[in-house]
Amino acid sequence: GDSKQYKTGKGASLYILIICTLLYMVNYMDRQVVAAVVEPMKAALSLTDAEVGVLGTVFLLSIALFSFPVAYLIDRWSRRKSIAIMAILWSAFTFLTGKAWNFASLVIPRSLVGVGEAGFSAGGTAMVGAAYSAKKRGAAMGVFNMSVPLGVALGSVLAGAIAKTQGWQAPFLYFAIPGIILGILALFMKDYKSVAKTEETGVKVTFGKSIKALFKIPSLVWALVGYGLANIMSMSFLFWTPAFVGRAWGVDIVAANAVMVPIVLAAIVGSPLGGILADVWFKKDPRGRLYIPAITIILSAICLAAGLYFQFKGIGMAFVIAYGVLNVMALPCLSAISQDVSPAAQKGLVWGLMVFCMYVFGGGWSPYLVGAISDALGQGAQALGTALTIACIGGVLGGICYFMAAKPYPADMDRVKHEQLMAEK
Question: How far is CA 303 from CA 152, 248, 331, in A?
Fold first, then answer.
């Protein structure tokens, strides 16, 4: 029956995990390229910080706008083909970004990279999740999600090194190649059947109805708003740190990007740690699953602000590494919560909604806003540092929203359990 259709053979499962994990890593390498080459690109095309920020913002907002339609399509059409097409598309547009000669020719392909990447986390998550049984799924998802920090670290280092020797455009051209190769290899993954979920009445649930149903869940709404606000800080950090370090330390592009490595690698510890702590607290009090992200995101904001105050030098570096660990501790908790409180028919869609809210409720606008504030304050290290410190307020506000989400969370979870029991009768 049901379990058979989902499980694939051992070799096929491993193939899915390897291809999806490598693609997710390349995805984040491609995301990090612009941040890595901000300074030489800015100089070559004589851009302001705000214009550079627009590149980050159009990219993130295009991911947000297309995350739903693409995730919806993936659920109803072939996951395997969707993943392959997305990978080839985002890689082709990454290549074209590297051929840009002015601001407009940079913005257009960059926003289209976002379209290609929009559904990948949903598609890849669904593909890997379905390839493994419940017992092994946690470990498989852990491997899959480790590619995010690895992609950011590799993307920063390689893009910096390539740009130093071959100019700012070269990393875009090189980074497009693995995505196209993996996109072709993705066509050989074993897909599993997916059908539009029907409620008990046998009527297909429409997109609008599904979204409405999700927005009626109080804990989920608070968590989504909090996630968007917290990402004002996270997205600003990822986008502007290499440029900030270059200005503050007066170092070249390779050294400025190398700073991302210890921070991002320290963050690898954070994700499983957050998940484990939240599970322990959850057993004593279900609300613990929201207290962990609430506490860790507020602490991470304090650490980042302190790190910026010291310009990431000396103790400032220790603060920013602590920021890296604390910041990602919220992620496994939020993934779990989104699944805990959403009805069976909306479990895939809720992840698309998380991605949408993460960018639209804050994260997507932040690269531009930080750049604009930096311009207004004079563009130097001090100006950019102040702009990034202001972005930390988003982390504090996000944490407050997570605290607010904790209150209705147990009741929202019970409601889903009740619905499942009724459905089984």
Answer: 20, 18, 18
**In the structure, what pLDDT confidence band is assigned to residue 330 with cuts at 50, 70 and 90?**
confident
Spatial distance between the Cα atoms of 425 and 418, rounded to a whole number of angstroms: 11
Query: DSSP letter string over 8-22?
Result: --HHHHHHHHHHHHH
For residue 2, the model assigns a pLDDT of 40
For the entire predicted model, the pTM comes to 0.88
Give 123-153 pLDDT, tens digit per residue. Answer: 888 788 778 876 777 778 878 888 888 999 9
- Does the domain formed by 1-187 have CATH 3.40.1160.10? no
Element (H, E) at 92: helix 79-97
Q: Are 341 and 421 in contact (CB under 8 A)?
A: no
* Phi-psi region at 312: left, alpha or beta (left = phi > 0; alpha = psi -120 to 50): left
Question: In this structure, which CATH number among 3.30.200.120, 3.30.1490.20, 3.40.50.1820, 1.20.1250.20 belongs to the domain 203-425?
Answer: 1.20.1250.20
As a whole number of Å, the end-to-end CA separation of the chain is: 18
What is the secondary structure of 397-424 as a DSSP string?
A: HHHHHHHHHHTTHHHHHHHHHHHHHHHH
Grouping H, G, I as helix, E, B as strand and the rest as coil, residue 169 is coil
